Structures are given as structure tokens and as C-alpha cells.
């Protein structure tokens, strides 16, 4: 099998991938870490030198950080609840005997393929605009005052847009898992007299549990970095009302040119993501040999 | 699938499922319909469903005003270029992990996956400064490199799961017949794994096409892709509804079609083989 020759060959074949990913992973991260301890502003070049924990204290001590952190949690949590609950429900529905299953699958998955800025702008201009958005028309139809979504409920509006994009993903994964449940198992439960609710709790839900975990973990990775949707709709505002950690780093580092503070914020984002990643890796790793 | 239910139940499920599906699809439908309306009709107080004065002028206007084709070209170069580059680096690596595994192969795979977990904002600032110093800001080369790096773990993972399904005996038989490694990969492995490679290619083109963090932060005018192009419509509101829709439709239509074909592979690719 694995002779010394193939082992050498194997290393050579893997080398390019390993090397580029190693560089990609280490170099920028070390730089971010370095900058986060430096006084480094593109606006004020006189300000240089070691900053100690000053950048971290500045970023974490600022009220905008606490708000961004809370916003990040609400954004991730809100979208997860909508997509997992909605996705489970929708997957169960699509798994029932009905006409046009193939076409339905395609229709339901479509929003996932819409690029984030387009998704955000459709919702912003076509639906949530108080003047000519479809929701505004709907509200007026019922004699209600149209809502100015992005000014009154900025974070909620962003959650709606992001949930719309990720609900199809959750549905598709959960539907795939559901369809791998053997028919015999279901029929056996049915014959044993289990009603629909019992079948859901004791047969279907345990079978889907692992897929739900994976959906949650993968979505969390992506949702922590939500950026374009905020950029094109609210710009993080009003104030910091819809700024998450990712957008705060962009605001501080790129828009305000404060490299040191932006980097400190970036490191905080890395730590948060690593906690999530730890659990995802364990979930995926367990399955590697199966 | 062949559960016995009454026709009434089936009708009920069908209606419920179609209603929800169409509700979810309505924003896309809105784009498609509005793209063919006049601006006046698009913002009319009483909204119309189908375009009353069917027009194609929005598409022309979008091209004239913001040079759609330049951005589309940039999107194609970056998404296809980064995917091909990724396959070039990924196929040998996946071959090694699938057919000549060592004790550490599993660790290497997990480590590659972990690079995907790194939040983009964590490295945005150094990448921005490096790109500025190397004059890679707002260039297609720079963007292609970044896109290759962020999608490489997914490419390798997908290829690995597809390669694993090919019996090693066949590759060994080729080896016995004296096939060089190059021939083994190009003439035996790639033709056999072609469906898997094609799905990998498709999914990664889609992911790169829709990537909207690096494309927005690292480009401005020259190398802007369609994501950056669409984002530029975020400030001038109001009068642009029909043109915005036309631009949006042009930006999402090709990927929507590709997505419909690759939805099965999407599950496998985005869950790293954990859900099949």
C-alpha cells in the first residue's frame, strides 16, 4: 500500500495546497495581532509605537462595541431561530405526498442563490420602502400607516433579509436528511399506533438532530460575518443600531482608518468565531470516517 | 415515498406547500416583473402585477449608465478563474488524501476546513494594507487570489469526498500497467471523477460569484464585480426601481440557473460531506 515512494509523492502533491493555506492563515492573522497592539492610524501618521492593551480597551470600552456584540448575537440568534424552525416545518411539508415536488424544491432553494447585495436591495426598495415598497402597499390596503422599516426596526429588517436568504439552505439540508429516513421505520411506528406528534418527537426529530446541529453550526459561521446586507441597507445605522462586529471592524479600520483599533476588533471577531468553529469541527470530524 | 393518503390530503399539502414556496419566491418574482416595467409604473401608487407597457429599455439604460458588461466580465473572470486555479491546486491534494492517505490526512483535512472558519474581518486590515502596498487593490488578479484561497478548502473537501468513492483498485491497475502519476490522474482519475469535479466547479463558481465581502471592500471602479456593481445602487433610491430590477435580474439570472442544476451537490459541498 503506502510505500515510502507514494508517501513522498503524496506530500509533494499536497504541498501547494498546504503551503498557500498556511500562508493565508498565518500571515494576515499575525499581522492583525501585531497591529492590534500598535498605535497605527492612517489619518494621524505621527501616532506610532507600542500601544499595549490600549486598542482593546478602546474598542471594548466603547459603547458601540457592546451594542455591536449584542446586535451580532441577536442577528445570529434571530436568523437561526427563523431558519431552523421554519426550515424544519418546510422540510416536513415538502416531504409529504404532493404534486410538483421537484419544481417546489427549485422554487424554495432560489433565494439562496441571490447574491447578498441584490437580496438586500430588493427588500430595501421593492418591499420595505414606506413609499413604494410592496409591504407599504399592503399596509395601505389594510388602512394602516406604512412602516419605515430601516429607520424604525433596522436590526429586525436585516434579520428578515438574512433569514430569507438562509431559510432555503436550512430547508434543503433538512429535507435531504428527512428523505434518508427509511420508510420501514416510519411505517413500523405508524403500525405501532404512534400518532403524528409522537412520530415527529420520537422518530423524525432524533433522526434530524445531527443535520440540525450541522445547519446551526455552518450558518453561525456565515452569519457572524454578515456584511453586505448591512452595508447596502442601513450602513450600520441609525447610529449603531444595526452594526454587528464585522461591520464595526470595517467602520473602525477602513472607514475611520484606525488600523490599531480595527485590528483589535478583528481579533475579538476571531476569538468568537473560534469558539463556534471548535464545536463545528467536532461535529464534522466525528462523521469523517462514517 | 409511496405513502397512502387520500386525494384530499394530498391537495391540501400541495396548496400549502405552493403557497409558502411562492411567498418565498415573491421577491425574485418582483425583480423579474419590475425589470420590464417603466420607472413610472414601477413606483405607481397602485402597483401592477404584470408590466402594462412591456419595455426592455431598463436593460439598455443599465448598460449605458454603469457598464454592466464590464462588471459581468469581471465576475466571470474572478469566479471562473479562482475556481480553475483552485481545482489545479486542489485535485493533486485531494488525490493524495484519498488514495495515498497517511496518519495525518484526517488532521490536515480538518485543519484546511478550519481556515474557512476564520472571519474575514479578522484579516481584512492586513489584506487591505498588503494589497495597497503591492498595488493589488481594485485588480482582478488580487481578487482572484483571495477568492481562490477562501474557496480552496471547500474545493479540496468536495473533491476528496468524490474521489473516495472511486475504487482504488482501478488506479492501482493503471499504475501496474506502468502509467505515470500524471497519466494516472489526467487519464484515469479525472475522467472517472468528472461528474464530481463538475459539481465542485459549479458550486464554487456560484459561491465566488455571490461573494460580497472581499469584492466590495477590495474594489472600487476598475475591478468591481457584479456584487460591487449592485451595491453601488444602494444610495440613489427612488427613480431607479425598474433599472435596479433590470440590473439585479442580469446579476442573478445566470447563477440562479446554475444553482437549480447543482442543488443536490450544494448540500454535500456546504456541509462538507456530513449530510448526503
TrEMBL record, chain A:
Q: Which Pfam families match?
A: BPD_transp_1
Subcellular compartments = Cell membrane
Known InterPro entries for this protein?
MetI-like, MetI-like_sf
> Membrane topology per the record?
Multi-pass membrane protein
Domain (ABC transmembrane type-1): residue spans on this chain: 69-280
Q: Name one GO biological process term.
A: transmembrane transport
Say where the protein is mainly found. Answer: membrane
Q: What is this protein called?
A: Sorbitol ABC transporter membrane protein /mannitol ABC transporter membrane protein
Q: Which domain of life is it from?
A: Bacteria
From TrEMBL, chain B:
Record GO cellular component, one term:
plasma membrane
Reply yes or no: does the keyword Isomerase apply: no
Listed under GO biological process in this entry are: transmembrane transport
Tell me how this protein sits in the membrane.
Multi-pass membrane protein
Q: Which family does it belong to?
A: Belongs to the binding-protein-dependent transport system permease family.
Keyword Cell membrane appears in the UniProt entry:
yes
**Domain annotation ABC transmembrane type-1: ranges:** 72-262
Question: Organism, per UniProt?
Answer: Devosia psychrophila
InterPro entries the record matches? BP-dep_ABC_trans_perm, MetI-like, MetI-like_sf
- Which Pfam family would be a valid example here? BPD_transp_1
Task: Show the stretches that span the lipid bilayer.
Answer: 12-33, 72-96, 108-131, 143-163, 184-206, 240-261
For this protein, the record's SUPFAM superfamilies field holds: MetI-like
Per UniProt, which keywords does this protein have? Cell membrane, Membrane, Transmembrane, Transmembrane helix, Transport
Judging by the UniProt lineage, the source's domain of life is: Bacteria
Protein's name in the database: Mannitol ABC transporter permease
Q: Where in the cell is it found?
A: Cell membrane
